[in-house]
């Protein structure tokens, strides 16, 4: 042993084993210490954040994990009834996008009939992730057909800082000013899609609502429920805020008056028929239907309204619980800022409460959606048939009042079927409510068809006499 | 090589791994895992929400983690701890585990046996004691009694 230690095989075997064990132990202690640190202070402030920084990359220096997840909303994965297929697109000068979502109009030409004469009948594609909201709005062909107002930017960009600048610190004033600009004028001043500052208070990261239209909307909606003087920032619980931040945009809206003020039509309540009754009262129309001349409405992604009627809302489950579920990163429990369909993340989104295999849960989701899709198809068939019928006979209806009545049936039926069509869950957010709305739509179509038959019968009889 | 130096090298070769292992064990609160205290399970941060849920559960005052999740005499209790301890630290270090975590068959059976350790008298007098309930067991209906799983 004295002379040949370096030549001894046992010695070298010991060196190797000892190195491996030590390396493993050192690795363990580093991992444990990292996780202990994570548990103690989940984030570290590296740069100060003020209420004027809308660039998510700056916030991302303090919250790298959240920022990394947020960036992943560029993904283009689809589910059975939603999401994007990332179709390749040859960039042109007018539209430099290299991928676009598939066209819903090509999938279902009935939509073109329903929206005849409106910009949506020219270009309407499946929705993509948050990261695409600004560019998809900039380059849609709808922009070339109509001159859109700055109002659109409320939900297609991070506008909080811009609105504050426009209003010299007063967000309401900035909101009013932005609505009255043209879309392209306003769009020059924003750079980011929805960003950290739109939902978070920069000092405490507390959730907050930054969109004036929702502040006003939720007040009137609560009034309809019998709660007067609802103050969002005082009365909402943290769990409700996990709904309200999303409801700033994922709602039905219209542009009120010549100042194009973004308004949520919730005076009579949040249900589709409440909203329709409100529009009936104020006589708002989005456009004149090309085939029938009816003054019609376009429903816009009423996710919040539909969800509010569903069982998950009733059980106190928020948008964030399913669309941004908790996720473990090391020792930290983070809200997944990769906002997406729960159907793409069933284990985090559903299995926290529903302990069934993923395949079973997916089948349940799709069963609900298949049924809604089937009835939506029935209602759309009836509606497009009625539109064609009315279009063919409208010149023969002499009495103006009769014509208006027939057109009104279309207006109502169309808004209701569009409400389910535009809502991004194919019925899942509130299955029974979706079917109730579709059956109301079918009933208006039926009444309209009966009415058309009656007046043409009356006409024939009077000719006979 | 002189005898003294080779002895020093050899003792370092043996001593460094042992010493660093002891340091790691102590730093990671290793001794707490030998105890009965439910807080030990929280060392692994994954269990925090389960611990909080247990604190709000009907079993809080009467049964801790070890009362339901280990079974038998002291030897089998510690061997179950050792098996779970190894598997859990493996999963947590690599990050390869289903999130939200799910109980596996081995541990589910242990938990079920422990339902009977306390409630057997009641079960014996009920109709559920008899065979014929198929694949249903206590946890089919009472899955939230220890801690809700979030």
Q: Which outline of chain B best applies?
A: elongated
- CATH C-level class of the largest domain in chain B is Mainly Alpha
Helix content of chain B: 55-70%
Order of helices and strands of chain B: HHHHHH
Biggest sheet details of chain A: 2 strands, antiparallel
Cα end-to-end separation of chain A:
130 Å
Residue share in β-strands of chain A: under 5%
Query: What's the main sheet of chain B like?
Result: none
Work out the radius of gyration of chain B: 21 Å
Largest interface comes to:
A-B, 33 and 30 residues
Structural class of chain A: mainly alpha
Keywords:
A: mainly alpha, two-stranded antiparallel sheet, elongated, B: 150 residues, mainly alpha, 2 domains
Q: Brief overview, please?
A:
The complex is a heterodimer of chains A (465) and B (150). Chain A is 52% helix and 5% strand.
Any chance you could write out the topology, listing elements then pairs?
The complex is a heterodimer of chains A (465) and B (150).
Chain A: H1 9-40, H2 56-62, H3 64-71, E1 87-88, E2 99-100, H4 104-107, H5 110-114, H6 133-139, H7 142-145, H8 160-166, H9 171-180, H10 183-187, H11 196-199, H12 212-224, H13 232-235, H14 238-247, E3 254-256, E4 261-263, H15 272-282, E5 287-288, E6 295-296, H16 303-308, H17 311-314, H18 319-323, E7 326-329, E8 332-335, H19 346-349, H20 358-393, H21 400-422, H22 431-464
Helix pairs in contact in A: 2-3, 8-9, 20-21, 20-22, 21-22
Chain B: H1 3-27, H2 48-55, H3 65-69, H4 74-94, H5 105-124, H6 138-141
Describe the structure.
The complex is a heterodimer of chains A (465) and B (150). Chain A is mainly alpha-helical and 465 residues long. In chain A, 52% of the residues lie in helices and 5% in strands. Chain A has 22 helices and 8 strands. In chain A, strands 1-2 form a two-stranded antiparallel sheet. In chain A, strands 3-4 form a two-stranded antiparallel sheet. In chain A, helix 8 (160-166) crosses helix 9 (171-180) and helix 20 runs antiparallel to helix 21. With 150 residues, chain B is mostly helical. The A-B interface holds A 1-3, 5-6, 11, 14-15, 18, 21-22, 25-26, 28-29, 31-33, 35, 38-39, 327-328, 330-333, 347-348, 351-353, 355 and B 1-3, 6, 9-10, 13-14, 16-17, 20-21, 23-24, 27-28, 45-46, 48-49, 92-93, 95, 98-100, 102, 143, 149-150.
